[in-house]
Amino acid sequence: MMRFLEASVQAFALASVWRGASAMVASGAATEQLGLLQTLEPLAIPATVLAVVGSVAATHIGFRRWRKLPKVAHAELEKQPRPSRESPLSGGRQDRLIEELRSQVIELNREKALLARLLKEKSESLRKDPLTGVFNRLAYEEQLQAEYQRWKRFGNPLALLVWDIDHFKQINDRHGHAVGDEVLRGVAQQLARRVRSTDFVARYGGEEFVMLLPGADAKAALNVADKLRLNIAEAEFSDGAVDVSVTISCGVSNFEPGDSPQSVFNRADHALYRAKKAGRNCCWVS
Questions:
Q1: Active site residue 141
Q2: Which candidate, 278, 254, 279, places its Cα nearest to that of 265?
Q3: CB 102: neighbour CB atoms within 10 A?
């Protein structure tokens, strides 16, 4: 094919050159130019002409080959194995697997509920005083901050009470620590049972207790404190062998604009000190 094209191009070029030369002679062109044309070698065809013709031929041949490529590729794809559309599990195995997964989910939910309950119980135990059963100082600090933020937001009355068992050291020295522990438990239960569910009672440390009364102003808080004081004074506490009567003193303070939890506690503690100086078994407001 390529040889045929080359020969055709050469013949076409020679014919064109001699045709041009004849025209030049007929029109009286210079003999020098005619002599130049006569010396032209028949096979000296410009490379540009050959390149153009070769490109056309190559394109023609390549196009014919390219038309065959899609058919070959399609045939190769047809030979590839097709994935199976059938389920790898039979109906019976699928049912068993679903039932097993359902059982596992139920078991996991049961364990989750158990874990949540245990975590709640553990959290509560960490916030309770092991001796008296009321909240401990850690729980009090958390509750105080929560009530303080609520008071700042809504402005409702909030009272803080600090309690101290009178002459508690003498009870320990005279009757022993077992009796002293019974007194602590009894006083704590008296304080916790005789307040509202919204109120908060905690053991602050030693023989001291603290109380938060949301919604109570100074007058209402003092009335609550006096009733609690009288109830404890009338009660008796025993370890099974010894009966002991005790009294308790209290300092009361209310949250006022500009207060912080520490400033209110300091005022209540100062009021408790004044109650002690006044003879104990009484409540003072600061």
A1: no
A2: 254
A3: 10
* Reported pTM: 0.63
| Amino acid found at 115 | L
Domain boundaries, the chain: 2-79, 89-126, 133-285
Tokens representing 44 are 């000296």
pLDDT at 131 (0 to 100): 97
What string of DSSP letters covers 245-256?
Answer: ---EEEEEEE--
Paired residues of 249 in beta bridges: 164
Kindly state the greatest CA–CA separation across the chain: 157
Instruction: Tell me which residues of the chain have a pLDDT lower than 50.
Output: 2, 4-6, 8-18, 20-70, 72-73, 86
Burial of residue 253 (CB within 10 Å: 0-12, 13-18, 19+) is buried
Catalytic residue among 207, 234, 236, 256: 207
Supply the CATH classification number for the domain 133-285: 3.30.70.270
What are the beta bridge partners of residue 244? 237
pLDDT in tens, 231-269: 999 999 988 889 999 999 999 999 999 999 999 999 999
Nearest in space to 145 (alpha carbons), one of 245, 52, 212, 49 = 212
Residue 238: phi, psi to the nearest 5?
-140, 150
pLDDT at 87: 52
Q: Which residues contact 18 (CB under 8 A, 6 or more apart)?
A: 37
